[in-house]
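To the team - adenosine-5'-triphosphate complex, inputs and output below.
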Amino acid sequence: MPQQSVIAVENLTRRFGDTVAVDDLSLNVDQGEILGYLGHNGAGKTTTVRLLNGVLAPHHGTISVLGLDPLHDGVALRRRTGVLTETPSLDERLSARENLTLYAEMYCVPGSQVRERVQTLLETFELADRAHERVGGYSRGMKQRLAIARALIHEPELLFLDEPTSGLDPVATRQMQDLIRDFVGRGERTVFLCTHNLTEAQRLCDRVCVLERGRLVAMGAPRELAEAFAAPLRLDLEVSPGHLNLAHETLARMPGIESIELVESEAVLTITVTGREAIPALNAALVQAGAAVYRLVPHEPTLEDVYFRLHQDQPGVAEQRQRMVEA
Ligand code: ATP
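Output:
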């Protein structure tokens, strides 16, 4: 079944004076996916979120969010979307329960449902025990959980999250990521996630977009991007200790191998090859030469490897970026 587009953006541009914050951006987000939106500081992530929410007007291009134009249908749209900004402003003089109740009223949650919805969110976000305390006395993690709970009070279909785990400890981070996954549930709901945390993006996101100075430079599933951009590939080769020299000599004669290094302490050769396709021939050559291969393991590239490579001026990267964005 074809996926339904929840966000459709075409040729979107937004400038601030001479700065082009978002530059000719086109992208689609499908219902039920978590889309990671990555980029250095100042790449244009927050500006995009503000454009998608109708807070800013574009200078060029079209935006459709849940079938609506954010600039003209802002009120209708905000009833169906939730937003966690980088610096969520909670009312610190009020308790968590009061904050949520206030927002429920602002978002026109039917009066008969407010109490139950607030209580469910307090329990889901593990705030129920201290729900009556002033938010000013909460830890950073508690405030962040409350801010997300607040963004969910009107049961939005689409959630925008700007750095939801920044400043959280590893346990709170993992907890928050699980909550984001739970929110998407069985695929009816969608998340647009701005993050600097590449491990988080790899763990959570179905697809990621990488932005550089307002321009989209790569888009795809983390695995696709890893395969497209994270060359060269590193392999660990362990052979019988008496066969290290034989293995080294055999590999040195082969094409497609960029470097071979002996890690003496582990009696392992670290090999750099152009890509996965080089592995079968390499293995066959070692076996044919009579080397007893104990282990030949590729280091699976991470989104972090991809991210750094995308921002380097390596030969072929620009062309690869272009192909991927056009696809
Ligand atoms: P960060 O990761 O630091 O939050 P970002 O990717 O969200 O950064 P934006 O906040 O969208 O980046 O900023 C993109 C560019 O637009 C930056 O050069 C920023 O200085 C500029 N910019 C954003 N908002 C404004 C504004 N209101 N007035 C002037 N310039 C702005």
